[in-house]
Specification:
Mean pLDDT: 83
Shape: elongated
Helix content: 55-70%
Radius of gyration: 18 Å
Strand content: 5-15%
Low-confidence stretches: none
Number of helices: 2
Order of helices and strands: HEEH
Number of strands: 2
């Protein structure tokens, strides 16, 4: 069984690594010129799509971790509203 202190450290470490990777990749994606034709280049201008993908990936990662450790805290969804 994982102690609560170790779990907190792992969650914090996971968040920092994920956000650093997200920032790096988003910067690379939004600042790179992509070649469409021989002389036509485009730049990705939809960062909201990247943010949505990050939110979904974060939710899935947290769900997998909670499923593996089996200690998910059941909180009613109404608390978040």
């Amino acid at each position: 069984m994982v102690t609560s202190e170790l779990r907190l450290v792992l969650y914090c470490l996971g968040l920092y690594v994920t956000f650093m990777m997200w920032g790096y990749l988003q910067e690379r994606i939004t600042s790179t010129k992509y070649s469409v034709d021989d002389d036509v280049f485009v730049i990705w201008k939809f960062p909201i799509a990247l943010n949505l993908a990050m939110a979904i990936a974060t939710f899935l990662t947290a769900s997998v971790i909670d499923a593996i450790w089996g200690e998910a805290i059941k909180v009613p969804i109404s608390v978040f509203w």
